[in-house]
Amino acid sequence: MAWWRRGRRGDVAPHDGSDLASARSHLEDFVRTRRGVEAYVEPATNVTATTVVLIAHDGEWTRRALPTRPQAFEVARGFEIPVYDVNLTGYPARMRAWTTRQRQNGS
User: Fold this and answer.
1) Which residue in 75, 95, 83, 85 sits closest to 25, CA to CA?
2) CA triplet 10, 95, 74: central angle to 5 degrees?
3) Where does the pLDDT of residue 9 fall: very low under 50, low under 70, confident under 90, or very high at 90 and above?
């Protein structure tokens, strides 16, 4: 039945983080152009590879998938910024506040 498939994303392949150079370039640009950036490494899920979330001082954030957990920590530490395991620390409140502001502003 078609309604069973509605909303499912089975036709979309999970992001595997295989484009390491592109991810590293994007993350490096974010670190270079923002103040007070911290990195949070997220575990892989059934849908995504391990990811790194960078969060600036004002809560602005970006996320990129990387091939493995060790590579995620290695890339993040290479920027010489604080690096956290999100399973141990959670996300900072400023990230949620920034996301809320963006939704309210229609961005």
Assistant:
1) 75
2) 75
3) very low
Reference 62, options 18, 101, 31; nearest CA is: 31
Q: Residue 48 corresponds to which amino acid?
A: T
Query: In the structure encoding, which two tokens stand for residue 73, read together?
Result: 């920590």
Rounded to 5 degrees, what angle do the CA atoms 61, 63, 67 make?
Answer: 155
Q: Which residues pair with 55 in a beta bridge?
A: 38, 61
pTM, full prediction? 0.82
Q: Is 90 exposed, middle or buried (0-12, 13-18, 19+ CB in 10 A)?
A: exposed
Can you tell me the distance from the alpha carbon of 107 to that of 102, in angstroms, rounded to the nearest whole number?
Answer: 5
